Prior knowledge:
The protein is α/β, with parallel strands linked by helices.
Amino acid sequence: IQVRWRYSTMEDNVEDVVSGYDRGGLYGHSFGALACLYAALQTRPDFVVASSPSPYLAEYVDDLDQDYRDQIGKRRTQDFRERSVDELSEIRCPVYVFYEDQALMRQVASDIADVVPTSSTHGLETQRHRLFDHYDSISEVLENAMPLDAMRKSYE
Length: 156
């Protein structure tokens, strides 16, 4: 799914995911993980993989460095303040939340797990925030949680 990142808000990104979604699961990393989680409220996917969901929600905005908030701009920061992890409580599909070994990332994953009854959290043995650093760990968890045939079937 093509998502506009530059000069966009979470609302724009969720709209991109929803309009591009056909069927199967949703997989997002970082900011894209949040977009997939919020899109799941509208699309009802078979499952969601949220790899290192970003702390861009009302609960965490004040924990972000002021310099970083200045870089992302007032419009995006305000957009983050208007979204809460509690909104995700309506997700009913399996949600696999992966997080890096960093305090804020652990907190985000834990808070998502607290409100999404169908979620499970999985720690990654890295502090790096790059998708490809997580690929093997995520694949292993998904293969054990969901047989490959079931994943393939969700896309048929």
